[in-house]
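Worked example 3 (structure in, sequence out).
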């Protein structure tokens, strides 16, 4: 269960990327953690957040992973959803306790990242309470 490939990915990551919920459930019940990160600092929650698979994301969130865990660049699952314009994923992640004001190593929030990628609807959904909208 703890074995990793050269990128640092685990069996949980492989199963999750292929939407194998039954295998993910088995691995989680056998001691795997959604908070395990690969060499880039990415975990399964981050990888799922950037895909348009809202149902699988809900499944993962039910396991209560760390919501503000960041990768090596300081990016969180919320930021990955924002970068791809997945507003529904971003809302789910926020409702699970993610911090919209958290910044990456470049000082950007999920809001900034969504705006940078021209995902205006997503930017509005993830806007921290004190952020000013940029024109």
């Amino acid at each position: 269960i703890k074995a990793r490939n050269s990128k640092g990915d685990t069996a949980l990551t492989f199963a999750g990327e292929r939407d194998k919920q039954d295998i993910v459930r088995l691995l989680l019940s056998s001691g795997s953690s959604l908070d395990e990160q690969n060499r880039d600092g990415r975990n399964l929650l981050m990888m799922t957040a950037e895909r348009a698979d809202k149902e699988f994301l809900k499944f993962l969130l039910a396991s209560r992973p760390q919501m503000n865990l960041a990768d090596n660049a300081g990016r969180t699952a919320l930021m990955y959803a924002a970068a791809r314009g997945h507003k529904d994923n971003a809302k789910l992640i926020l409702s699970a306790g993610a911090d919209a004001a958290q910044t990456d190593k470049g000082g950007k929030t999920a809001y900034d990242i969504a705006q940078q990628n021209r995902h205006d609807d997503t930017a509005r959904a993830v806007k921290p309470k004190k952020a000013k909208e940029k024109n």
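Notes: The CA atoms of residues 70 and 76 lie 5 Å apart. The chain has eight helices and no strands.
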